[in-house]
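#structure-requests
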Amino acid sequence: MSHQMQNVFIKFYEPLPEESITLPVNQLEQFLADAPSKYGVAWVFHIQRDGVTSDGVTSDGPSTSVGHKKRGPKPKNVWSRTYFCHRGGVKQTRKDVNRGGSSGYVRHLQKPSKKIGCTAKLKVTCYLDDPNTITITHINKHNHNVGDTDELQHLSLSADVKKYITDRLNDGFDKRHIRLAIQRSFIKFLSNNLSFTVIDGNSYLNQIIHCNQIVHADEVYNLFYKIQNQKYQRHKSQHESVKTWLNELESQGFKTFIDDSSFYSQFTFGFLSPQQKQLLLEAKSWCLDATHNTTNIKNGLLYTIVIRHPITGTGYPVAFLFSVDGSSSPLIRFFTFLKLIVGVPAPLKITIDVSNVELDALSSVYPKAQIQWCCFHVSRAWIKKLRTTV
C-alpha cells in the first residue's frame, strides 16, 4: 500500500504577543486553532465561567428588561469572550469516592495533571465602532514555561498532522492494521513517512521542540474512535440511530422487529438477514443464548438464536434481539414476531440457559417444542450449589 508523503512545516514556538492583536472576526477560530502549534498554548472557553448567552458570547454592557431601562453608561462593545489557558484550574478529587477501594492501596499517578492553576487569559472583544474586527488581549502571565519539553504531553497535534492520520485511517488502516497502529507500529510509520521541514533557516529538527514531533498512541486511537462513530452512528440519539439502522437493513431485505409503544422505555429491537431467515425456517432445533454487558447501555441484554449450520456443522447465529427489559415480555413479542410475521415454525427442540424467563416466553409461543436446559449451565449451577451448601 503506497502512501503520499505529507510535508508538515514546523518551527520554533513564537513568543506570546504582549501587545493586543487586531483581527477580522472571521479569523478568530483559525487563530485559536493555530495557537498550540504556533505559540505552544491552547485556549479553552468555559461557558459556565463566562456567564454567556445561548450563542456563546457575553456583553459587557448593562442589561435591560422589557418596560424598564437600567441606568448606566452605554456599552462600548458588541460582545466579548474570555478564554483560559489549557493549564488553568485545579485537578478536582471526588470526596465521595473511596480511593484505593477495599485494599486501601492508592495507585500512583501515571501522568501529572495538566491543571496547575495557571491564571493566564485571552480576552476577545468586538467594539461597536468596528463590529467586523476583534481585539485579542493577553491577561496575566503563565505560571509554566510555555513551549518547554514538559509541555508537549499536554498539547495536541496540529490540524495538519491530525488530517494526515485521519486520511491514512480512512485509506486502509482499519481492523487488524489499526490494532498494529495503536501498538506503536503506526507511530513508527509516521516517523518514516512524515517529512518535517524546518522554516527557521539553519535550524535542525532535533533542535526544535514542537508538539508535532510526538505522536501518542492515544491520539491515534481518539481519531480512530471518532471515525468509527461517524461510520456507525446515524444520529446523536441512540434510539434514533438504531431506528435509522433498522430502516436501512429492512431496505436490504432484512426482517426487523421493533415495538414502537415500548421502544424508548425498553429499547427492544431485533433483526435477521435473508440468509439467516432461510436457515432458521429449515432448522429443527435451536439454542437461545443471553449475553450481558455487550454495550455501554445499562442492563442491556443481547439474545441470540443459534443453530447448527447444515454445511459446516458448527454454531451459526440466525436472529438477534436486544432489550434492557429482563422480563419475558420482550421475548414473547419477538418470538411471536418470528412465528407470525417471519413464519418460523415450532422447532422440535430448543436449548436455553437456566432461565425461567426464557422458559416462560418459549412455552407461551411454542408450547409444542421440547425445551431443555444447557448442560454446561446446569453443571455450573450444581457446582455453585454444592460449594455453598456442602
